[in-house]
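REQUEST FORM: STRUCTURE PREDICTION
Request ID: SP-0412
Submitted by: Lab K.M.
Chain count: 1
Length (residues): 226
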Amino acid sequence: MTQQTTSSSATPATPTTGSELSATTLLSASDLYCERDERVLFRGLNFSVRRGQVVQIKGANGTGKTTLLRMVCGLNRDYEGELLWLGREIREHYEEYCSQLLYIGHRVGVNKVLTPLENLRWSCRLQREVDEQQLLKALAGVGLRGFEESQCYALSAGQQQRVALARLLLSQATLWVLDEPFTTLDVDGVALLEKLLHQHAARGGAVLVTTHHALDVPDLEVLNLG
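STATUS: Completed
RESULT:
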């Protein structure tokens, strides 16, 4: 596995826009600056995410990994610099951008009173109607066959994480943004998720992921914060 490492302290690159943008570049960040509680998290941060690429964001706790992902998803707009999707500022066409984005945060985001099937049905309907058999197939695909109708509070933390990850099998989004998705997974779950990341990239999608786990995916690029 080849890893390319980009540091947040690198010399800021010239912003890439318009015809200069590579045909395969989906997301690009230029000269990002962000602070929290009067403490600078990063400045002069530049990176890009291309089709077919998995980018892992690494850094110690408190270096701004989750904050950066929330910025990319438009959930945190308290920053300076540019975030471009296909060469256009995401804040200027946010609805269109969101239709190409799937975000799974570090909190599982599963309603524990509902069943895995109910959770998946609800989350999918936020964007489109999904056939019931597709929902069942997705749950089976993440190892939850036989647990479709169990209330989520009765499931382990790892199984609840798999409920959230079943969304990956149903999503039509080009960009996956995942915050610590490996935390509660067992060995089999880790292998499954790595396979899903690789398959998504191989289909021309892209992944931006934070994790302390040593990812085993081809052509991984690492963005170091702090």
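NOTES: Residues 187-202 form the longest helix (16 residues).
Reviewed by: T.R.
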